[in-house]
Amino acid sequence: MVEKEVYIPIEGMTCAACANRIEKGLTRLDGVDKANVNFATEKAKIRYDTEKITPKAFEEKIQHLGYNVSKEKVVFDITGMTCAACANRIEKKLTRIDGVSSASVNFAVENVTVEYNSSEVTPVDLKEAVKKIGYTLNEQDSNEETADYRDKEIRNQTGKFIFAAILSLPLLWTMVTHFEFTSFLYMPDMFMNPWVQLALATPVQFIAGAQFYKGAYKALRSKSANMDVLIALGTTVAFFYSLFLGYEWHINGQVGMPELYFEAAAVIITLVILGKLFEVRAKGRTGKAIEKLLDMQAKTARIVRDGLEVEVPVEAVVVGDTFIVRPGEKIPVDGEIVKGSSALDESMITGESIPVDKKPKDVVIGGTINKNGTLTVNATKVGKDTALAQIVKVVEEAQGSKADIQRVADRVSGVFVPIVVLIAVGSFLAWYFLIEPGDVRSALVPLITVLVIACPCALGLATPTSIMAGSGRAAEMGVLFKGGEHLEHTRNIQTVVLDKTGTVTKGEPELTNVDIVNGTEQDVLALVGAAEKHSEHPLAKAIVDGIKKRGISIPEPEQFTALPGFGVEAQVDGKTLYIGTRKLMKQHQLDSQLIEEKMATLETAGKTAMVIAIDNEIAGLIAVSDTVKDTSKAAVARMKSLGLEVIMLTGDNEKTATAIGNQVGIDRVIAEVVPEQKADEIKKLQLEGKKVAMVGDGMNDAPALAVADVGMAIGTGTDVAIEAADVTLMRGDLQSVADSIQLSEKTMRNIKQNLFFAFVYNSAGIPIAAAGLLAPWVAGAAMAFSSVSVVLNALRLQRMRFKKEGDSREQ
Questions:
Q1: Phi/psi of residue 609, nearest 5 degrees
Q2: Is 4 exposed, middle or buried (CB count within 10 Å of its CB: 0-12, 13-18, 19+)?
Q3: Among 120, 146, 130, which residue's Cα sits nearest to residue 50?
Q4: pLDDT tens per residue, range 497-523
Q5: Per-residue burial over 254-274, b = 16 or more CB atoms within 10 Å of its CB, e = otherwise
Q6: Is rRNA-binding among this UniProt entry's keywords (predicted)?
Q7: Strand, coil or helix: 690
Q8: pLDDT at 371
Q9: Residue 726 · residue 488 · CB < 8 Å
Q10: C-beta atoms surrounding 573 within 10 Å
Q11: Among 321, 334, 499, 652, which one carries the catalytic annotation?
């Protein structure tokens, strides 16, 4: 069994009932393990067994259910063609690729237009296939033909609304002038004529409203119902009953004026189209986070080939390429600096506005900005492997996944439409036989109104729009949720367990203390730097870096010997140096009592202290420590203010761990835990009934991250830790832990507000409509308003801000 996941874009869904129907249809296919259809993103996420089924079957099933799989279209320029036979060869090669619907090569202008399913094949795959037969494809900029489906939908609905509104306004005018308080308004007699109303209403009903008939037909053909069924049924009844009344008025000698419903049908369709227009615009805004991330990517790269600089599309860069980045330009892909130094704006990843100094052998991230200095960089990660591509992937998956709470709404919306139709028919029968016996006109109003007002759009949009907006805002704040379920569960966290090294602390030792008792600090440190210069020990590097930062010049040693477990011995400028532990001093009969008290104080504070001896005399001591991150103390205080228990879990010795814990305000420290025991400690906390979040950055944290209720990986940590976690904190700042919990709380509160509004709207609206207390056109306006209001409420999440003291505020 070989499992794989694909995302399939779907066109034609009109409400949550559509999404629910497609999801059920896909789940029933043999070989499909799980299918999620997101109405807001208009995509299906399918996990399947590649040995039993192919994506082609998914497309066929979706089409059988009455919907379409969105096709991507891309135009490539071709280099290398010499004749029409070349064009024919390229065309055949492309059309034989799984997922390609069509390929048309134009030899005269040397380009090819390819229509493909993005779930099965990518533009990179197309380029590679053609490259194998000796030609090169270069992607053109997008044009009208390759415009985004949602932009097309906005234009389409805008045109339909303008068309319907122009024809509906005169009909709405006839309705308005019926009210007593508007009797002073002038009404041309011609607009009261049934045949004029018929002429105005017919194009609205059958041209602008054609989309509802098509959607209803597809739904009914697959033995289900959706919002299109409700709209089509309600407006059709109003239209044809009005037509019958007009005919009856005509054969009866045109006596009086019949009570027609042409205006109700036309105005309902116009308002529903307006609601869909607002909805599709608002839904587009919930996906802005992805667009912002994609905008960060460079479009081209200046690579060096055969000694020449060549500007190519960023997609053409391969691992191992050397590229040049000049001041003010974006880094095209992830890489390692070969030559040059500069300061880079990495705020997109770290959130820090201060540029970071970079030098040869330092890693750079695609999308960050080179502020000054020209860099020569070796590409190490390209395409989908870059840090930015991984961020985009995580956000897309989070926005496309379902929270548990959404499944409740899905189940409700799946049975909602048939129930509404029964209620509408029941209302009609009650009015016709009991309330106003024999009066079709009186019975018709509640029938139409119930059908229109009960559309489950708001119910279907309630959760996914909030998930999209919340996860998008989280990404902007440097918090990546891997799925909607993790966004939902994070708010339940009671205990936060923090790894020490690289999480609470910086993960890099620094020279923190220098105490000289014999000689000047500058002279002694110059000798110490020389002695440690060639040592491979991490602490030696920290010492040398610290001395260099003090502006002290370091000479070359004449002799150097590493003494594992003790320290180093060196000859510098004719002097003999010993730097290391008490044991090393004792071996050479050197008394370190002079500095013992200071040394013990530093060790109690969690620092590694080393004695310096020059020519058999104690010269002083130096201390190295993995320093606490600047924000750790404030972050721990903020977590506590949110009512969270904070624990530190580390493999370090208890004395050092306790010192670090005291420094940042952590009361409970679990120390000297080997990596395989970390997961056991998390399980112990869970057995106490606590919901536990584990925050770590190293490979040794991966088991604990996977076991925890919510695993949070520091984004500056290892790939293994990030892969095992449910949430990635890109900024390496523990403030993001509190951010993630508050983001989760606010998103879930927003979802509940949306669901409450949607349920209350339908629950209250249907009885009022059944009682005949609402005009059909008012129901249409209310239905449109309900969908738009739910989406707009979700969009408030994009403006979330948090106070660093712990109290949140939404702006």
A1: -100, 140
A2: exposed
A3: 120
A4: 998 877 888 877 889 899 999 989 999
A5: eeeebebbbbbbbbbbbbbbb
A6: no
A7: coil
A8: 84
A9: no
A10: 13
A11: 499
Report the C-alpha gap between 164 and 156 in whole angstroms: 12
Give the containing element (helix H, strand E) for 465: helix 457-476
Q: Which residue has the tokens 């860069």?
A: 317
Strands in 100-106's sheet, in edge-to-edge order, are 100-106, 111-116, 72-79, 136-139
The DSSP symbol for 796 reads G
Element (H, E) at 124: helix 123-131
Taken as a whole, the chain contains a residue count of 811
CA distances from 84 to 78, 96, 345 (A): 13, 19, 49
Residues 312-355 have pLDDT tens digits of 998 889 999 999 999 889 999 999 999 998 888 776 665 444 57
- What secondary structure, in 3-state letters, does 224-256 show? CCCHHHHHHHHHHHHHHHHHHHHHHHHHCCCCC
Sign of the Cα pseudo-torsion (316, 319, 320, 325, in order): positive
Give CA separation, 193 vs 160, 165, 215, 258, in Å.
25, 19, 32, 9
Model confidence pLDDT, tens digit, residues 242-270: 888 788 787 877 666 666 778 778 887 88
Q: What is the pLDDT of residue 749?
A: 92
pTM: 0.60
pLDDT of 146 over the 80 cut = no
- Beta bridge partners of residue 364, listed in sequence order: 335
3-state secondary structure at position 646: strand
Between 282 and 239, the more confident residue is: 239
Q: Which of 671, 663, 660, 667 is nearest to 640 (CA)?
A: 667
436 secondary structure, DSSP code: S
- Across the chain, how many H-helices and E-strands are there? 27, 32
Coil, helix or strand at residue 369: strand
Q: Is the pLDDT of residue 597 over 60?
A: yes
User: How many other β-carbons are positioned within 10 Å of the β-carbon of residue 303?
Assistant: 20
State the DSSP code for 207.
Answer: I
Q: Lay out the sheet containing 608-614: strands in order across.
A: 505-516, 617-628, 608-614, 575-580, 567-572, 559-563
Q: How many CB atoms lie within 10 A of CB 376?
A: 15
Q: What is the dihedral of CA 441, 446, 448, 449, to 10 degrees?
A: 140
499 is catalytic: yes
Q: Which two tokens stand for residue 340?
A: 């040059």
Query: Contact, 611 vs 633, CB < 8 A?
Result: no
The DSSP symbol for 700 reads G
Tokens 């020990």 sit at which residue?
A: 537
Q: How far apart are CA 662 and CA 669, in angstroms?
A: 9
Residue 555 one-letter amino acid: P
Distances (CA, A) of 175 to 169, 259, 263: 10, 11, 7
Measured CA to CA, the distance from residue 568 to residue 529 in angstroms comes to 11
Phi-psi region of 502 (alpha: psi -120 to 50; beta: other; left: phi over 0): left
Of the given ranges (600-609, 618-627, 696-705), which has the lowest mean pLDDT?
A: 696-705
Contact of 741 with 645, CB cutoff 8 Å: no
User: What is the tens place of the pLDDT at every residue in 83-102?
Assistant: 455 676 788 889 888 778 88
| 770-805 burial: b if 16+ Cβ within 10 Å, else e | bebebbbbbbbbbbbbbbbbbbebbbbbbebebeee
- Joined together, the tokens standing for residue 55 give 């994506």
Q: Find out whether 509 and 626 touch, Cβ atoms under 8 Å.
A: yes
State yes or no: pLDDT of 559 exceeds 70: yes
Amino acid at 367: G
**Three-state secondary structure call for residue 507:** strand
E strand or H helix at 712: strand 710-714
